[in-house]
Amino acid sequence: xxxxxxxxxxxxxxxxxxxxxxxxxxxxxxxxxxxxxxxxxxxxxxxxxxxxxxxxxxxxxxxxxxxxxxxxxxxxxxxxxxxxxxxxxxxxxxxxxxxxxxxxxxxxx
Length: 109
Fold this sequence. Notes:
The protein contains 4 helices and 2 strands, in the order αααββα. By secondary structure, it is mainly alpha-helical.
């Protein structure tokens, strides 16, 4: 089973647990004790699932269109504006490895 499949399975298992706790009428702590589930893990997943439900659309789109503005002159830098206000500016002549490293670091933000 690949990493994505494991993550999806874990999400499904925890979503079922959160639903079961809510349907039980027990507090989260009491339900976790009864079901022998880690309370801290339960709280982590409950928050994570709620946060994911509140966010519209995919968290990380698989493809993002890049539109180049034609200013008629030479390009000095490439600027990528990401959600949350993060902007990445790279000199136009940057090599592929530099771009890869910059984008990799941006993905950790």
